[in-house]
Write a structure and sequence with these properties.
The chain has 91 residues and is an alpha+beta fold. The protein has helices at residues 3-14, 18-37, 83-89, and strands spanning 42-44, 48-55, 58-61, 68-71, 74-81. It is 43% helix and 30% strand. It has a 3-stranded antiparallel β-sheet with strand order 1-2-5. A hairpin with a 6-residue loop joins β3 and β4. α1 (3-14) crosses α2 (18-37). The longest helix is centred in the first third of the chain and has 20 residues, at 18-37.
C-alpha cells in the first residue's frame, strides 16, 4: 500500500473527501517525522514503533580503491513490528 492507496482507503472508510483524507494522512506523517527528528520514539500500540538509532563515527573503506574513509556520525530511523502485527502477518 502506498500513500495514495492509504488516502483512498481513509476516504472510503471515514466517508470524507479525498482532500480531507490527504490532509489527515499528511498531518500524521509530518507529526511522526517531526517527533523522530526530535529524537523521540513513535509507538502505535499493537502495530509498530519507530525510533532513531545513533551511530558514532568510524573508519570504513572505499570498496573500489580500498582507501580508508572516515564515516561521519549519523542517525537512522528504524521500524519494529508490534506483537499483534507479527501474529496477524504470520497467520
Amino acid at each position: 500500500m502506498n500513500k495514495l492507496e492509504l488516502i483512498s482507503a481513509l476516504k472510503t472508510k471515514a466517508d470524507i473527501s479525498k482532500s480531507e483524507a490527504a490532509k489527515v494522512v499528511q498531518i500524521f506523517f509530518d507529526s511522526m517525522a517531526g517527533t523522530m527528528s526530535d529524537g523521540e520514539r513513535v509507538e502505535i500500540r499493537g502495530l509498530c514503533s519507530f525510533f532513531v538509532k545513533e551511530y558514532k563515527s568510524y573508519t570504513g573503506r572505499n570498496p573500489k580503491t580500498g582507501e580508508k574513509v572516515t564515516i561521519k556520525p549519523k542517525k537512522l530511523p528504524f521500524f519494529k513490528a508490534g506483537k499483534e502485527l507479527k501474529e496477524r502477518v504470520d497467520q
